[in-house]
Design a protein that fits this description.
The protein is of the alpha/beta class. It folds into 2 domains: 2-164 and 354-372, Rossmann fold (3-Layer(aba) Sandwich); 175-349, Glycogen Phosphorylase B (Rossmann fold), CATH 3.40.50.2000. The chain is built from 16 helices and 13 strands. The protein starts with a strand and ends with a helix.
């Protein structure tokens, strides 16, 4: 097969879908040396994402997430002689009939329309068309599969659930090694802290976490600071203003986007726990990455998160602020519970792998092409 994979998103942003695309491509290169892969990269993204004999970079001019994207995208991909095309960022070329596989990560733009920008709403508003156009659909969780069927009427028969995984880099390391890694990057963190990882945007529900943290300081005398790691997204200024209004400026540290996974691994390893209060996740990698590092997790019981963490984390409704404070305090104070969740988390994280995801994705490609014949 000659397989095209639309990887232009990697030039557009470095959030979750970009990481999904990069890790999947790397995993495919390790399991498949027979098929030809055409990596459709943004023209300004000059370095090939994968260096392998059967992978080659092709530059596309079609703008990413742009209202005029579809015409040039369809024209440019039509001339490449592809047997199929995979669009990891939901939307395939809609104006040609190359067999298409799409990955749908979540339907947040439908469930929480007030949490997305107008630009995102316009782009992801094409998902219903994409679902009809696609020969096969990859859902990254059963929760997303159910949403596709119930909210968009997608036929169950053409949906494959393929879980993501933590990068193999994420694993326990000694505290001294973690501290040395962060010192190398000039990242200064205290000896112990509560960690959040994710884009600073409304869907991540940081307002609830900040209010719960205020209760922790007031009612339980918790001294550990709160460290927030992630790029500033839509309405990020609201989070900064809330920190000030709650008088937490000296206890809440914004590290911004951490560009190297080694630094993020170090932060996971040094953190007392990860708090992930999102209103909704199609998969939710940070809890899985934290568990892979042996870090206890408190996370929301919404969306796919219970499916991802199983019994290896404390689950809390996203809007119950006092329950968040109680659960975090319980985990900080109870060494036996922390050790139990550490053991369960490591075991749970080991059940997910990018090799499994790549094998299942390659089979999905075969199904898409076979269905066209």
């Amino acid at each position: 097969m000659r397989i095209g994979i639309d990887a232009r998103i990697l030039h557009h942003r470095t959030a979750g879908i970009s990481w999904y695309t990069r890790r999947l491509l790397h995993a495919l290169s390790l399991i498949d040396s027979e098929n030809e892969y055409v990596l459709l990269q943004h023209r300004r993204d000059l370095e090939p994402i994968v260096h392998a004999p059967n992978f080659r970079r092709v530059a596309l001019y079609a703008p990413v997430h742009h209202r005029f994207e579809q015409l040039p995208l369809s024209a440019e991909t039509r001339r490449l002689g592809l047997d199929m095309i995979h669009s990891p960022d939901f939307i395939p070329p809609l104006r040609n009939r190359i067999p298409a596989v799409i990955t749908v990560h979540d339907l947040a733009f439908i469930r929480f329309p007030n949490f997305v920008t107008k630009e995102s709403a316009r782009y992801y508003g094409q998902t219903e068309l994409a679902v009809r156009r696609a020969n096969r659909i990859i859902a990254v969780s059963n929760a997303t599969r159910v949403d596709l069927v119930t909210m968009l009427g997608a036929p169950e028969a053409k949906i494959n659930v393929i879980h993501e995984a933590a990068d193999p880099l994420y694993q326990p390391i000694p505290p001294a090694e973690a501290q040395a890694t962060l010192s190398e990057a000039g990242i200064d963190v205290p000896d112990s802290f509560i960690l959040f990882v994710g884009t600073i945007e409304p869907r991540k529900n940081l307002g609830a976490l900040l209010r719960a943290y205020q209760l922790l300081r007031r009612n339980y005398d918790v001294a550990q600071p709160l460290v927030l790691v992630g790029a500033e997204g839509w309405l990020h200024q609201d989070v900064h203003e809330l920190v000030q209004s709650l008088e937490l400026s000296d206890r809440v540290h914004f590290l911004g986007n951490v560009p190297d996974n080694r630094y993020l691994r170090a932060l996971y390893n040094l953190a007392s726990l990860l708090a992930h209060p999102a209103y909704y996740e199609g998969f939710g990698l940070p809890p899985l990455e934290a568990m892979a590092c042996g870090t206890p997790v408190v996370c929301s019981n919404a969306g796919s998160l219970p499916e991802v963490v199983g019994d290896a984390a404390l689950l809390v409704p996203p809007t119950e602020i006092e329950s968040w404070a109680v659960s975090i305090h319980r985990l900080l104070a109870d060494d036996a519970l922390r050790n139990d969740l550490r053991r369960k988390g490591l075991a749970r994280a080991s059940t997910f792998s990018w090799e499994k995801a790549a094998v299942a994705t390659l089979e999905t490609y075969r199904q898409a092409v076979a269905g066209r014949r």
